[in-house]
Amino acid sequence: MKWILLVFGSVCLLDVVEDSFVHGKRNARTVTFSRTGRGQSRRRRDTWTTEKERFTECNTPLSVKDRELLRSHTHETGFHGDDGSSFTLTWAGNGTGIIFVLSTISVPSDSFYEGGSSRLYRSEDYGKSFHDISHAINNTFLNSYFGISAGHGNPQPVILTANLPFTKDPGGKIFTSMDAGLTFRSVQLQFHPAQAIQFSLLDPKYLVVISIDDGLWLSEDFGNNWSKVHEGVHTFTWGSENTLFFSSSPNGTVEAARRGELILRRTCDFGKTFDTIAENIFSFGHIGSFLFTSVMEKLGSPRVIYVSKDQGDHFKRAQLPSATTEQFYSVLDADEDMIFMHVDNPGEDTYYGTVYASDEQGILYSKSLERHLFGGEGKSDFTNITSLRGVYLTNILEEGGCIRSVISFNRGGRWRYLKKPENVDCPDMSKKCNLHIHGEHSHFSGVTPMTPSSEPTAIGLVIGHGSVGDSISAARPDVYVSRDGGYTWWGTLRGPHHYSILDSGGLIVAVEARRDRGISSIKFSTDEGQCWKTFNFTDHPFFLAGLASEPSSSTMNISIFGYRLDDNHKPMWVAVTIDFEHLLTRECNDQDYVTWLAHSNYSSNPKTDGCLLGYKETFRRLKTLSACRNGRGYVVSRQQSPCICTSEDFMCDYGFYWHENSSACLPQPDFLNQTQDFCLNVDLQTTGYRRIPGDKCKGSFSPPRNEEAHQKLCGNVTSSDSHTEIPPAILALIVVCSLGIICLVIIAAYMITSRRINCGQRSPEYNFSVLQIQEDDLSVNNESTPNGKLNGFQVQEDSDDDLLE
């Protein structure tokens, strides 16, 4: 087994996989396109099965005036003479229009450091033109994996990392720029970086990186001077403020990560002083407001997870179902209030498990979804729909082997199947006709070119590939769109497409994904995907590599990257950038917007209609038929009003679950009488329900207390506030017997101690600042852990590197 820690922005993945390399979510500011080889794409054929068309795509003609207008604002760049096998795009800031493109050529691994080459291009007009600036860095070969790092702030900081042969050069080289790449300063390093240089979250002049010899290096002056602050470092991550967490091996220790002997340290003054906050760990991760550690509490026991919400001052053990060494945990999503944790099902290669949702402290977990699909390659379809609060989308693997999509509108409290789109026909033999959406698993397998997409400023808008029927189909996927956060859907495009949401949802663009021939046209919609217009952007088709747009959805520029044969019959990279701002010239006014109540079903009690997690949200959103421009200055307008508490504001508590044939939370059979230590030490006073984390409802409503359910969960545990009356005679007898037993225990203890000084048995501990090995009976069989080099990380073989991003 190999454990891998993937951390990208705010999410970290705790997972166990058979392969040592796992693709993660890309950085929002960076995207990489690759050529498959000379002529290879032309010979490749689409291999999807075909079926009867279930809906008709709505297309409207593009006027001659609009066609000419778009053509005059379409810019094509051919990168002549560039034989790079991959293009990496990085945006510098938001709204700056500055893009860096790093082209690198693949070479045999035995000559990687000697024969590699790269070119660096820069655009300052959103990709309408590119200029080769390789000469500004003396044509230095840049690292193809982490050659460009762009920070935040104004002016925009940029760092380029050279790829020098570490066998010949004692140190590496970087190029720094504080003017978004207009000028660069060369800096010779004392070390070779093993990953991308990371900027401080508060001040970009503070930098940190791990070297190839596991040293932790920090700079306080934007890379001009560096100091080595620690050795033997495995992983680091920024916490809140300027807090830096890192794990390291004890001096002289070999393979400490594999044996669970790492030390977790914290520095708040950039390496001048350190605090040891945990010992004997396998790995760690920082997600939202949660800090995780993975530890083996006693020799030979499964790993368990401890969680801290105060930056490592105190840790508590996460209360999750036990897992054997064949199982794993994966943090699917996390924020300031809660965590979604996938727990693998027992057995080898089951490809499914159970999703648990945590409380606000990240300690107690309740069952949210059973039979959750989790591919053997470490891919999950769990998706946060960012365009509407509280919505999550994923897939389940049913007992018959079929994959079906489910959606939750209240942060995992309840899940339901997706509704069939109104304009789509069901298959003739379908018995359970629903919409099913492809996720990361299908994207990784090459079934779809993209995963579902949503943007926080495009309220309610969701677009993704899927199929209609009993389950996800192996047929050629189509594109579906929702404008209300997933409650209802619409069949919008036939066949697979690359797509992008622009102008805060006022514009959607799409390009057909063809493997067997070149593309020359783009589709766009100004009515949230109801109908489309087609524009032919080139007379010379090319093979599509992908779409690229600024990370912010407010842009109206889209770049289409691909390649075709040049005049010498050699592959040539091509970029076409289309500026739609000149098509939608009218700024939206008040008449173009409508008031919309989110999560409304239009039929319930007006007092509770639209209530979700304790309050209603009313948005001002663009009318479907308003063809105007939101613009870069667009800000989402919303009004919130509180709701009274109802049963919808509660989810099942730790040890309980929603039964499909019941509206009540019932005790989990596998938890009965197995949580005695937990009930004694955590003071669990449960009714079987708890308020959903982040819920802000008002009022004194609470679900009916189920004393019998609590008794079943905790057995006959006697709490400290019990006042059961005991007859005096019985009480006296108990006292006498107790004194006798105490005397015998003292004598026995003295005799045992004379033979064995330290038994090492310790009681469970749930609150401590220095995490150490604990010998107790509460070991959660977690083969989950985090370790490996963060954000650029080097995978550690057979280590537990996996606690979410």
UniProtKB/TrEMBL annotation:
Transmembrane intervals: 729-752
GO cellular component annotations of the record: membrane
Disordered, as annotated region: 782-805
Domain (VPS10) ranges: 109-719
Matches recorded under SMART domains: VPS10 (SM00602)
Signal sequence extent: 1-19
InterPro entries assigned to the protein according to its UniProt record, in alphabetical order: Sialidase_sf, Sortilin_C, Sortilin_N, VPS10, VPS10-sortilin, WD40/YVTN_repeat-like_dom_sf
Key words of the record: Glycoprotein, Membrane, Repeat, Signal, Transmembrane, Transmembrane helix
Presence of keyword Transmembrane helix: yes
Subcellular location(s) of the protein: Membrane
Compositionally skewed regions (Polar residues) per UniProt: 782-796
Gene3D superfamilies in UniProt: 2.10.70.80, 3.30.60.270, YVTN repeat-like/Quinoprotein amine dehydrogenase
Pfam entry (one): Sortilin_C
Family, as annotated: Belongs to the VPS10-related sortilin family.
Name listed for the protein in its UniProt record: Sortilin isoform X2
Organism: Danio rerio
